[in-house]
What does this fold into?
Amino acid sequence: MPELPEVETVRRGLEPVLSGARVARLEQRRPDLRFPLPERFAARVEGRRIVSLARRAKYLLARLDSGETLVMHLGMTGRFTVGSPRCADSPTPCGEGLGVGGIQDRRGSPHPQPSPTSGEGGNRLAAFVHPAGGDATHDHVVLHLEGGASVTYNDARRFGFMLLIPDAELEAHPMFANLGVEPLGNGLNPDYLAFMAAGRRADLKAFLMDQRIVAGLGNIYVCEALHRSGLSPNRAAACLALKSRKPTARAEALVPAIRAVLEAAIAAGGSTLRDYRHADGALGYFQHQFLVYGREGSPCTRPGCKGIVRRTIQAGRSTFHCPVCQR
DNA sequence: CATGCCCCCTGCACGC
DNA sequence: TGCGTGCAGGGGGCAT
It folds into this structure.
């Protein structure tokens, strides 16, 4: 998925469109994503006002005035696109102005191509990094808002999902009850990591990928944070545990490294990988700032380090690290 | 309880 | 050009 920075970028892009808006119609184009879509989905959302759009870990939470929350997870390839109200009934492209996304509104064409295959006249803007022209084949859910704007959920692999959960049940829901701390919140600190790491036999990579420990980190940013903090992904997580009742230097280094890389990625509008490539080949920003991820065989980017970045497999996922400066 | 592995699904890059 | 292979940001579920 999009990891935390990408989800936060989407949230910031969608918030001005969704927050306060009323859903006139929910268009559901298939029965399921990763899981079945909610029972009576359209009936429970149509006519409701979206009170706020929040994020928890990699989940987007659209609070409805009905007392339910629409929970949305982007999986690996989920994305949102926004149809502008002014474009809804117009046959001509009118893409300017609605800066919803992290990438296209900075670098993409100022006049996105109309999509011949999408609905609503095909005039859409990126809510995240959206291929110019779009791919309506994987448009699974469309929120038609009062006033004419629309928000479309597109997800080729369908690893994403949507849930409708009564607010009162949200905290206790299995999907949220066991989530760890937000990495950008005060909950993440060296003492917390030390406490959670005590007695763990998993390696650091698995430990940091575990959403029950820190919620929102994924494969890319774990690799990046470990590189920034000079820690090997293969080291036992227990190395973070207290020594002489004090947090270790490793835990002290890891916390700011995690924060810094996430904040930089959010500031850059979220990274993109190939699934988010523009049709014209323009790419997002932050991936160009990866210091290890995707750099197998290249010289380590740490100043003065002579190491070569290695790619290994942990738990079936690629890990990138420098064996020289990450110990 | 913790850990490791497989799987869901589609698209794309690569090598032959 | 076409086909097979491997790989991709996540995370639920299962066996151990």
Observations:
- Residues 34, 75-77, 138, 155-159, 200-202, 206, 274-275, 315-316 of chain A lie near DNA strand B (CB under 10 Å from a C1').
- The first helix of chain A runs from residue 4 to 18.
- Confidence is low (pLDDT under 50) at residues 90-133, 273-283 of chain A.
- The radius of gyration of chain A is 21 Å.
